[in-house]
Amino acid sequence: MRTTPRTRMTRRAAVGTAAMMLAVTACSSSDSGGGDDGGQITLTVGVFGQFGLEEAGLYEEYMELNDNIVIEQTSVQENSDYYAALLTRLPTGSGLMDIQAVEVGNIYEVTNELGQYFVDLNDYDVDTGHFMDWKAAQATSEDGRVVGLGTDTGPMGLCYRTDYFEEAGLPTDREEVSELWAGSWEDYIATGEQFMSDGPDDVKWVDSPGGVFNAVVNGYEERFYNAAGEVSYKESQGVSDAWDIAMRAVDGEMTTKQAQFTPDWERSVANGDFATISCPPWMLGYIADKSGDAGKGLWDYAAAPQPGNWGGSFLTVTEASQHKEEAVKLIEWLTAPEQQVRLFTERGSFPSSEEAIANNEEEIQGVTHDYFADAPIGELFTQAVDGIPTLIVGPRDQVIQEGLANGLLAADTQGLDGDEAWDATVRSIDNALDD
Questions:
Q1: How many CA atoms, within 13 angstroms, populate the side-chain half-sphere of residue 103?
Q2: How far apart are CA 87 and CA 79, in angstroms?
């Protein structure tokens, strides 16, 4: 059993100004009297990034099926800002939404240290039997409380630009591209070295060292914590291997020197500044949204060197909600197998429901993505799920993961060698863990 570290509700009391403004200005059902008007109930939903539920039309469909329900969504671009603001709201309940999305890197803390602020879905007889076992377990506390329902998973792949590959003399067929690095992230970097020599002068191999690191490390069961629940990133083979692979990209000047999901990174995506990117299903929406019409048909999708899972989120209902029963019904519907299939076909978010995959095999297997040269993403993602390890998740996963990505970015932008960057990164992470 994992040990549960002491609660650290004060660790982000001094969040950034933007996050604090979000905490002050956000409006919950408890602040607004529930938003009820003429028998209607307003349910507020807080998410981060291009979450996909609204974009796939699921809110609209639910409101059509339930004419007494109005759904209002608020989205914060970066999860780090979103989660920091969420932590400031939980103790008082002020500014909380009825429904709050939680990223997998935060789900352990939400489930095991902050569970008192979220509804136990067992009390509402919610069916969790259709989810993948490991996905359901991530939102289940050691004493059996269930605080979240999974929306999606993140089986790993790699997206690449066929025009840049052709110019570099590399194959462009997705099966041949997958063979370039099959079974080895080292071969992926070696292909990048060839690309940097023979490809377009103004194009880098990959967007970000942090993206490379996350793709590699999420193929290992033990990353930042060990099975005993102890912080172990300094001794983790997964972290060591991922750091070394990412540093090869840094040393080879293969990256755009950008942190993912920042405005500068978005401009790099839009401008086509790189040839490959670590690509779990949810990344497809980012690329299509940011690249726009200029990139359509130029991107394709290949298998990752090794299986891994990066990302996947959950929906929770807060204890502060004045409409818990209605909110629970909504998240149960949004994460039901039928809606997970629709979220995949509309937005590319791969299901966390085994039933969704098993009962809709033909529909899912037949899904292609016209933006990505009609890549058969249903077939490719289904294959990518095989062999994914059950990742050990700890309460400060996000802090450690972001710290390591930031350390790699510092090496990339400041010219630090691997040892210097590692030592500085360890100091920074350990300080954050002690905060």
A1: 26
A2: 12
DSSP SS3 for 18: helix
Q: Give the position of tokens 């981060």.
A: 48
CA 37 – CA 245 distance, rounded (Å): 56
User: In the chain, how many H helices and how many E strands?
Assistant: 19, 9
The rounded distance, in Å, linking the Cα atoms of 89 and 279 is: 32
Cβ-in-10-Å burial (0-12, 13-18, 19+) of 431 comes to: exposed
- What residues does 350 pair with on adjacent strands? 153
User: Which helix or strand (DSSP H or E) is residue 391 part of?
Assistant: none
DSSP string for residues in 201-233 = TT-EEES-HHHHHHHHHTTSS-SSB-TTS-B-T
pLDDT, residue 179, reads: 98
Q: Are 224 and 231 in contact (CB under 8 A)?
A: yes
What is the layout of strands, in order, in the sheet containing 99-103?
A: 69-76, 41-48, 99-103, 313-317, 149-150
Q: How far is CA 207 from CA 146, 261, 270, in A?
A: 37, 11, 12
3-state secondary structure of 107: helix
Q: What is the pLDDT of residues 204-250, one digit of tens each?
A: 999 999 999 999 999 999 999 999 999 999 999 999 999 999 999 99
Under 8 Å CB-to-CB from 28, ≥6 apart: which residues? 44, 93, 94, 95, 96, 97, 98, 318, 320, 321
Amino acid at 372: F
Sign of the C-alpha dihedral, residues 61, 65, 68, 69? negative
Q: Are 46 and 97 in contact (CB under 8 A)?
A: yes
310 Cα distance to chain centroid: 6
- pTM for this entry: 0.83
CA nearest to 223, candidates 319, 126, 310, 102: 310
- Residue partners of 313: CB distance under 8 A and separation at least 6: 51, 101, 102, 103, 104, 150, 151, 152
* E strand map for 241-311: 274-278, 299-303
